[in-house]
Design goal:
By secondary structure, the chain is α/β, with parallel strands linked by helices. It has 17 helices and eleven strands. The protein has a five-stranded parallel beta sheet with strand order 2-5-8-1-9. Helix 16 packs across helix 17. The longest helix is centred in the C-terminal third of the chain and has 19 residues.
Length: about 375
């Protein structure tokens, strides 16, 4: 079962944002009307999902929902697909064929990407809608039908009408009830809900989930491919993630959309620069006198922190801060790797940095992960 069918079978339109709620209410209002509906929205926004939900809530739900993508079928075959043909009507017509209008009789016909329909076929479609009957190619008698028509497009039909690329009379015939689906970037509060829904759909028995940090990054991505892109990415992550808790930092950048990978890198750099660093000027006072002030045994890191807090001046020769902090960082990485038995992902969590960042630091300090 494809993504659209699985979504429709379980929960039709995911989202609790104001935009999603308005759309859900509009679907409920329009479902039982037989008025033609024109759904507009970007590619991947969920136009077919909305059309199936309109059918599911209608009085025609017990009958067929028949869809056809007008952009996916060659122009010379689209007429036959829509209206049917008789045997011998043209070369290759070796048998009668029932068209989509007849297949959807008493049900719903969904014409996806109606903006890609050729102009000459638009004329025939307009006649069919007005007369409520189709003439199969090569037939001598028209066949009546009863369908609820839903059309959809990602194109600007009004602009196409102005440029004479789409028939004005057909546009008004289709656009009786307009439904506009907002892009995913305009309902970012729905992204977490969508991610959790799709990972439960794709992870089977693994019981996977996204970390809060990953959800935060995904919510900042603009999703040019909308819900379809999100669903496909979640499916990919369910395969690639080595842990049940999906952390984007553990996924190679090559498997992420370029803009999302860049956003993740920026997020990691921001985390690193925002982390509080140890005061740099303290090594000058690592003498016996200062050390003796510590009343009980402590770790090396704790000792350094306490000494730094007691400093009130720097030595005249200065301090090599870069080398000092590098030594501290490399030692902490070694400790984390030892504690995690060489598991880079677990070590990264202990250090509270991304896995990709830790790998870069391992290369920087030439640390072997077999520690």
């Amino acid at each position: 079962m494809d993504v659209v069918n699985r979504l429709t079978a379980q929960k039709t339109f995911i989202g609790s944002s104001d935009e999603a709620i308005r759309l859900i209410r509009l679907i409920a209002l329009c479902a039982n009307s037989d008025a033609p509906i024109l759904i507009q929205g970007e590619t991947g926004a969920g136009k077919e999902v909305v059309s199936r939900e309109l059918h599911r809530q209608s009085a025609r739900s017990a009958k067929n929902f028949v869809g056809i993508n007008c952009a996916a079928i060659p122009a010379q075959l689209l007429e036959s697909e829509l209206f049917g043909h008789k045997k011998g009507a043209f070369s290759g017509a070796i048998a009668d064929r029932v068209g989509r209008f007849q297949l959807a009789d008493q049900g719903t016909l969904f014409l996806d990407e109606i903006g890609d329909m050729p102009l000459d076929l638009q004329v025939k479609l307009l006649r069919v809608l007005e007369e409520r009957e189709v003439m199969p190619v090569g037939a001598s008698r028209a066949v009546p039908f009863d369908v609820r028509l839903i059309a959809a497009t990602h194109q600007d039909l009004e602009g196409m009408v102005a440029r004479k690329e789409f028939r004005e009379d057909l546009y008004y015939r289709l656009n009786v009830v307009p439904i506009v689906i907002p892009p995913l970037r305009d309902r970012q509060t729905d992204i977490a809900e969508l991610c959790h829904y799709y990972i439960s759909l794709y992870s089977d028995d693994r019981k996977m989930s996204f970390t809060p940090k990953s959800i935060e990054v995904l919510s900042r991505y603009r999703w040019p491919g909308n819900v379809r892109e999100l669903a496909n990415l979640v499916k990919r992550l369910s395969v690639l993630s080595p842990e049940p808790d999906i952390e984007l930092a553990t996924i190679p950048a090559a498997y992420l959309p370029p803009q999302l990978a860049e956003l993740l890198r920026a997020e990691e750099q921001e985390d690193e620069t925002s982390e509080p660093g140890l005061p740099p000027a303290f090594m000058a006072q690592l003498g016996q006198e200062t050390t003796s002030k510590l009343s009980q045994p402590v770790s090396e890191v704790e000792r350094i922190v306490r000494l730094s807090q007691s400093m009130d001046s720097l030595p005249k020769e200065g301090i090599a801060t870069k080398n000092l902090l590098g030594d501290i960082e490399s030692n902490l990485i070694r400790v984390a790797l030892t504690q995690s038995e060489g598991n880079v992902s677990k070590a990264a969590k202990l250090l509270q940095i991304g896995r990709t960042t830790l790998i870069q630091k391992l290369e920087k300090y030439q640390i072997e992960t077999a520690l």
